[in-house]
Specification:
The protein is an alpha/beta fold. It has helices at 8-15, 69-79, 113-125, 141-147, 150-157, 187-190, 211-214, 230-240, 279-291, 299-306, and strands spanning 23-24, 29-30, 50-51, 61-65, 92-97, 130-134, 160-162, 169-173, 181-185, 193-197, 199-203, 207-209, 241-242, 245-254, 267-276, 319-323. It has ten helices and 16 strands. The strands form four sheets. Strands 4, 5, 6, 7, 10, 11, 12, 14, 15 and 16 form a ten-stranded mixed beta sheet that branches. The longest helix has 13 residues, at 113-125.
């Protein structure tokens, strides 16, 4: 049955899922129980989408190499003309790293905390009224936020760090091909700008988890069912929430046993970072550079192209290589 024909409550009742915390298919992941929903403020059931790109900013791609993750992030942002290109005084910015796993930074399951901190600092300096760092984790939220180093780094840089709270989910009609009514964390429905900060790493279903896959972390509920049609689900998410900027952390890359990892033997130090306003192209570039994947091996890219969400031929957009 298509997802937009069945509510999450019906789904859970029919499959016998108990309310409360549960584990889904990948790594015993932490899940939110049936949320206390606040309906999105609409008088009808029309699909909702959010395009948080800045009008007039040219799509470009930055490939950055260096010896310090924070300096690499700063160099990428500077190449776009500074964070003021994207963030204006008084705006609310949500910054979404991958904080999904109870892992240390060297295990490369979560975004590098230095990259997160630098992006937050730049948003604060650009005059943002609020900079919120959050993610819907797979393991226990407090452990993930703390052990990853992201909570401390983000707070020190000036961010409001939000562990997921059930009452903050709002049910919206995403109007996707696979994703209909979904529970979305409210900051993504309210923020003026959205900066997506994934880490490049292996994934058992897609071979790589990159920018579009990082959007899973805006949703509550039973996310494991999205894996049934994962490529279509990724594109529905990308169409629903179009980011202001995407920065892919590839300081360390988890090449095997992702997305959770654990063994340092599966991690390779690449000392790279990608940044772009074009979410399809940056996934294509990251897949090629870090996992030797062609666009044909990343089916979500072709689906995204057909939905008008960008190009999988990343060399077709202006590209700059930077060493710091």
């Amino acid at each position: 049955m298509p997802y937009d024909k069945i509510s999450r409550r019906d789904f859970m009742e029919r499959t016998g899922k108990a309310a409360g915390f549960a584990a889904f298919a990948v790594g015993g992941a932490w899940m939110l129980h049936e949320p206390v929903r606040r309906p999105f403020d609409r008088k009808d059931d029309a699909p909702v989408s959010r395009d948080l790109r800045v009008a007039g900013v040219e799509d470009r791609l930055m490939i950055v190499r260096g010896e310090d993750p924070a300096k690499m992030a700063a160099a990428a942002i500077t190449a776009f003309g500074g964070m003021s290109t994207f963030v204006q005084p008084g705006e609310t910015v949500v910054v979404k790293p991958n904080i999904g796993w109870d892992r240390r930074p060297e295990q490369a399951a979560n975004t590098n905390p230095g990259v997160v901190a630098e992006v937050v600092r730049q948003c604060v300096e650009a005059g943002a009224e609020r900079v919120v760092v959050t993610d819907i984790t797979c393991n226990d939220p407090k452990r993930c936020f703390n052990r990853s180093g992201i909570a401390a780094a983000a707070r020190e840089a000036g961010a409001e760090v939000q562990l997921p709270q059930e009452a903050r989910f709002r049910e919206v009609n995403m109007g996707g091909e696979m994703l209909g009514r979904q529970d979305v964390y409210d900051i993504y429905l309210e923020a003026d700008r959205f900066i997506n900060l994934p880490i490049a790493k292996h994934h058992g279903l897609t071979r790589a988890t990159l920018g579009m896959k990082n959007l899973y972390g805006i949703l509550g509920g039973n996310r494991s069912r999205l894996h049934q049609e994962i490529h279509h689900s990724l594109v529905d998410l990308a169409a629903f929430l179009r980011p202001t900027l995407v920065i892919v952390d590839a300081w360390r890359v988890l090449l095997r046993n992702g997305p959770q990892g654990g063994s340092l033997a599966d991690v390779e130090e690449r000392k790279m970072l990608l940044a772009s306003t074009e979410q399809t192209a940056i996934d294509a570039c990251a897949g090629e550079l870090f996992f030797d994947m062609t666009p044909d091996e990343m089916p979500w890219l072709g689906l995204a192209e057909r939905r008008g969400l960008g190009t999988s031929v990343w060399r077709d957009i202006p590209t700059e290589e930077i060493t710091v």
